[in-house]
């Protein structure tokens, strides 16, 4: 059998699971996007810092050996991190100072050399930023075969985001697992409270209905107003009260019609027999007298059919005014 307590508990658990299940991919996606954006900013700052350091050393008139040591040290500084940094020497520098050992240039590096514009690439678990090193006026003192704006080299910064994303997802999942029982507990406490309130209100409503069932005289039937706390139950109680008022009205009207003539509204024989014992008893107690008058009119129904109920009700009065004195 379905109960409100079971419904609230099941609904709360389903809502908690739904919220948890929908929040995890949404928040995970947001974490990933935030980590990717932060990685691109960090890569840009790292490339700019590398270029600034290189420019300062170049300004001192460094040697070819110093340049090789700088490149080796810079690329090795990211060995134990999620980043990988590589500096590519362009053809202009190689023509002036000779080639160096470096990795093969892929499409992104080649395009950066050709266009002189930075390149960025974001995949699911990695980011890549390719920054061209453009010749400035100060660079022409050493790079005599270059012109301002020529691309002398390219800094390629890559980052593996898998460890960071996995750690963020693990932390979020752990936090959600800690939070997950609280909606269940809140649902349980809410269920207990609502169940208590509903049971209390339903019992009050049942007592009112039992009172109606146990009342034999419908004319005295009446429900006192009660507050069932819930507006829905109060609405039901108001409708029940209105129904009981109608039943009481029907019972009163039925009793009246049983003791009175339907056409004239005057007491009939049944009403006389019902009220006579009480009237005689009251007269005996008070030492008074009782006078009983009975009127028998012929053709009473044709009068009603011809002249309507208004004439019917006035006919007995006219008859009493024209009748001879009653015997005592």
Automatic annotation (TrEMBL):
Listed GO MF terms: diguanylate cyclase activity
Mind telling me which residue stretches traverse the membrane in this protein?
Answer: 176-198
Domain GGDEF positions: 258-307
SUPFAM superfamilies documented for this protein? Nucleotide cyclase
- Which GO BP terms sit in this record? cell adhesion involved in single-species biofilm formation; negative regulation of bacterial-type flagellum-dependent cell motility
Q: Which GO terms describe its cellular component?
A: plasma membrane
Gene3D superfamilies xref list = 3.30.450.290, 3.30.70.270
Q: Which UniProt keywords apply?
A: Membrane, Transmembrane, Transmembrane helix
Q: Under what name is this protein listed? A: GGDEF domain-containing protein
Q: What species is given as this protein's source?
A: mine drainage metagenome
């Amino acid at each position: 059998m379905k109960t409100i307590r079971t419904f609230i508990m099941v609904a709360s658990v389903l809502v908690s699971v739904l919220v948890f299940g929908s929040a995890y991919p949404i928040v995970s996606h947001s974490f990933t996007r935030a980590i990717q954006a932060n990685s691109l900013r960090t890569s840009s700052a790292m490339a700019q810092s590398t270029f600034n350091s290189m420019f300062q050393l170049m300004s001192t008139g460094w040697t070819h050996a110093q340049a090789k040591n700088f490149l080796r040290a810079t690329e090795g500084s990211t060995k134990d991190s999620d980043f990988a940094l590589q500096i590519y020497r362009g053809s202009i520098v190689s023509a002036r100072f000779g080639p160096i050992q470096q990795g093969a240039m892929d499409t992104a590096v080649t395009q950066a050399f050709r266009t002189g514009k930075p390149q960025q690439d974001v995949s699911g678990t990695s980011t890549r930023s390719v920054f061209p090193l453009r010749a400035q006026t100060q660079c022409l003192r050493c790079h005599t075969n270059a012109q301002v704006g020529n691309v002398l080299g390219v800094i390629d910064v890559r980052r593996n985001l898998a460890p960071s994303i996995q750690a963020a997802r693990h932390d979020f999942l752990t936090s959600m697992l800690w939070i997950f029982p609280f909606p269940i507990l809140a649902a349980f406490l809410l269920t207990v409270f609502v169940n208590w309130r509903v049971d209390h209100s339903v019992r009050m409503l049942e007592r009112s209905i039992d009172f109606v069932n146990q009342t034999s005289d419908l004319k005295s039937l009446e429900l006192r107003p009660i507050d069932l706390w819930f507006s829905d139950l109060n609405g039901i109680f108001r409708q029940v009260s209105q129904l009981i008022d109608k039943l009481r009205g029907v019972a009163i009207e039925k009793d009246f019609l049983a003791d009175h003539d339907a056409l004239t509204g005057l007491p009939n024989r049944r009403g006389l027999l019902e009220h006579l014992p009480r009237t005689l008893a009251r007269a005996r107690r008070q030492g008074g007298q009782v006078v009983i008058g009975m009127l028998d009119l012929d053709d009473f129904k044709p009068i009603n059919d011809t002249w309507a109920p208004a004439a019917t009700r006035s006919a007995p009065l006219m008859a009493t005014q024209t009748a001879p004195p009653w015997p005592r």
